[in-house]
Amino acid sequence: MILSKTSFVFTEYPCLTVIIVDPFDSFSEHGTGVAARDEEMNRALLCASESECDVKIGVLLLKYGADINNAEGEYGHTALMKASSKGRIDWVAMLLENGADITAADFYENTALSFAAANIHKNDMKVFLFLLKCGANIHTADITGYTTLMGASQASSVRWVEMLLKNGAYVTDREEEFNTALLCATNNSNCDLKIGRLLLDYGSDVNAADHLGDTALMRVSTHGRVDWVKMLLKHGAEVAARDRYGGTALLYAIIKKRDVNIGRLLLQYGADVNATDGEGRTALSVASACGRYQFQCCVNFQRKFPLKTCVYYFALNQCLICRPVSTLLCINLFENSQSTPGDWQLLYSSA
């Protein structure tokens, strides 16, 4: 920024020069009036609020008539929104002290609080907390219904999720595709397990489904997250849930060639090995088509020994750890209707 007696120029926006000294006379000399001067002041305030300008520049612009709540451009952003997105707490404080509308929303229903949440990835929540203290609505959502809690959950920011929940954010909110914060978290294949625990502890519905019928369990099974699968099952996730296409968590775990331990967990919690999707596929047929021999063992074993006995778990465990050659032998054993759990002990000794 360059200052002179009669003007200052934003070096970031060299085409924008705002006359400060004798502004009425300066604009009159160029054949323009008060309206043109005000427009320039408003544009300058918006530019300054998202730049590295000293906050005193903002005070000066407001003194000479800049509209603090002016929303310009195709998105309808205000100076408060821009300053919030940049994490400029000095600008945010100054604008609010001078009457900036904390409830103003852009054309997509984003408020200054929504823009402050853009700093989730920087783990910087100073502006966000300041806006909350000044009366911002933590339950605000954009035009699609997407909330800050959903964004923080999907970004896997434990600090932000914890802060939002402590400040009363709703875990039950849904956006236009019926995603909840928990479902948004499970969209991220690398989401921290702590996010899920926090959301569930605050009452998130473990069996909530989106507009396609996808549940959190289906998504984490697809991602291969054994830790998430285990946690969701312990919190009552329904293994029999189906999406719009008839798919189940077990089917998706097999199709995506995920850790066989996911299959074991789902089967132990009662997954139906005979369930068919919309195309008539079963877990066994999908495992065969995908070359998932260990999954075939799991599925076949569930069919042959439906009772959860100690022998069942012993044999199932050996099925999961056996070498590929032994895995094929597992399948052959299943095909023999006379095979018994005792046969698995022989297999284990030879594996």
TrEMBL record:
Segments annotated as ANK repeats: 75-107, 144-176, 177-211, 212-244, 245-278
GO cellular component term of the entry, any: cytoplasm
SUPFAM superfamilies: Ankyrin repeat
InterPro entries: Ankyrin_rpt, Ankyrin_rpt-contain_sf
Keywords: ANK repeat, Repeat
One Pfam family linked to the record: Ank_4
Keyword Repeat attached: yes
Family annotation (SMART domains): ANK
Name the record gives this protein: Uncharacterized protein
